[in-house]
């Protein structure tokens, strides 16, 4: 049995340091999660990438994040939470090689896709956790250590009864503020207006953060300082608007 096949059938084992497939039942129940693990099928290429490339780019979920050790250099650190298929993360890392990028994602097909892109582009300035971002921020990343945190198009959980699952809450934003250096930024984007308004209210309620992206409205211009996502372009074709927020740690 290959490593990739074992990963498909394994239960979580952070000590292995590989992105094993998990079900919601395997997750601790200490809080409401902002995601549901509906794992899509891995392509043969993604499965091969998880087997051969994960050791080069992946971090065990119980490993504290020390950028100097992980990347072998001192450089700004940008975290992307929930990077999806990783295309934006790969583009940002390719155009900004002097910055270290850390991606956090729970869905293995997206991780496999990103691994293939990192190999194709020959990038060495990206590392990945396959884990819940809140857990990683809480337990693995030191306070005042990040230069930026990006959250692009998180699950909007549009039904009112599911709003409690939305990631952006006062507790989450306090956690974000604690991890950012002075002058570090939090950049969020969504195509759900009511979620954008909720994000804005929560961010404005955090005294450690200030809105630096505001123009004629409290929101930043769409597409500011980032590549556009495949999800975003699809939404644009359907007539969806995008709301962006950029806040800085005081």
UniProtKB/TrEMBL annotation:
Top-level enzyme category: transferase
Catalysed transformations (reactions): guanosine(46) in tRNA + S-adenosyl-L-methionine = N(7)-methylguanosine(46) in tRNA + S-adenosyl-L-homocysteine
Binding positions for substrate per the UniProt entry: 159, 191, 229-232
InterPro entries per the UniProt record, alphabetical: SAM-dependent_MTases_sf, tRNA_(Gua-N-7)_MeTrfase_Trmb, tRNA_methyltr_TrmB_bact
Binding-site residues, S-adenosyl-L-methionine: 80, 105, 132, 155
EC number: 2.1.1.33
Domain of life: Bacteria
Pathway it works in: tRNA modification; N(7)-methylguanine-tRNA biosynthesis
Stored CDD domains: AdoMet_MTases
A GO MF term: tRNA (guanine(46)-N7)-methyltransferase activity
Keyword terms of this UniProt record: Methyltransferase, S-adenosyl-L-methionine, Transferase, tRNA processing
Protein family: Belongs to the class I-like SAM-binding methyltransferase superfamily. TrmB family.
Primary role: Catalyzes the formation of N(7)-methylguanine at position 46 (m7G46) in tRNA.
UniProt name for this protein: tRNA (guanine-N(7)-)-methyltransferase
